[in-house]
Design brief:
globular, binds thymidine-5'-diphosphate, binds adenosine-5'-diphosphate, five-stranded parallel β-sheet, alpha/beta, 8 helices
């Protein structure tokens, strides 16, 4: 399963993950790499169906426990159908969010469930990225960028500023706890400056 490389982008809603994941995919593809650009929740037909259950509706729609199970179910399908086959053929998989999002978001809403998140990950996923970019920025600015998109997927964004502050702290802690694979990227800069840093780390010998 480890022939290819799994690169993930993480951070709060609106911080620029999709933009940067797309730019890195384009840059690596233009150099001849086999690249699969994907996202969570989603990334396979079954997981995209589960995504709709998760991102639409009121913030109280699911309990924290049910939410963890749904995110893990979606990730398992994504892993089986999209990520694992691509890694086995040697591709670079770039995923806009992965397991760190569950650790941070579900951990931020109910810290006592963090152990359960880790147990489920070990039992059902058992795969960590080779490289993770955590885009760090002021939650108010990220929230404004996210809401400007008008996507209709606002269930998590509606959880408010206090929740987004905990998410930022959660991602920063995760980066310092996993310095071998995580790079904290300053997301306040312009798109090209951020992309330049990311590309230098992901492809140090272009
Ligand atoms: P995410 O995937 O993290 O939610 P997006 O990449 O979709 O974030 O970006 C959210 C919005 O902010 C988009 O409209 C995007 O064009 C814009 N954006 C992304 N990066 C930057 C940046 N560095 N500076 C200003 N605007 C940005
Ligand atoms: P996403 O589509 O990446 O939102 P955005 O582009 O706005 O960042 O993810 C949808 C929401 O799901 C987002 O608010 C984060 C949340 N989420 C979790 O709470 N746990 C998870 O495991 C994942 C993958 C996402």
């Amino acid at each position: 399963m480890n022939a290819g490389r799994l690169i993930t982008f993480e951070g709060m809603d609106g911080c620029g993950k999709s933009t940067q994941a797309g730019l890195l995919a384009k840059s690596l593809s233009s150099k001849g790499h086999d690249v699969v650009l994907t996202r969570e929740p989603g990334g396979s037909p079954g997981a995209e169906e589960i995504r709709q259950l998760l991102v639409e509706g009121s913030p109280e729609r699911w309990s924290a426990e049910t939410e963890i199970l749904l995110f893990t179910a979606a990730r398992r399908d994504h892993l089986e159908r999209t990520i694992r086959p691509a890694l086995e053929r040697g591709a670079t998989v770039i995923s806009d969010r992965f397991a760190d999002s569950t650790r941070v978001y579900q951990g931020a809403s109910r810290p006592e469930l963090r152990a359960l998140v880790d147990q489920l990950h070990d039992a059902m996923i058992g795969k960590d990225p080779d490289l993770t970019f955590i885009i760090d920025m002021d939650p108010a600015e990220a929230l404004k960028r996210g809401l400007d998109r008008n996507s209709g997927e606002h269930r998590f964004e509606e959880m408010g500023q206090g929740f987004q502050d905990r998410v930022r702290t959660g991602f920063r802690t995760l980066a310092s706890d996993n310095p071998d694979r995580c790079h904290l990227i300053d997301g306040h800069r312009d798109i090209d400056a951020i992309a330049h840093d990311i590309s230098r780390i992901a492809d140090p010998h272009p």
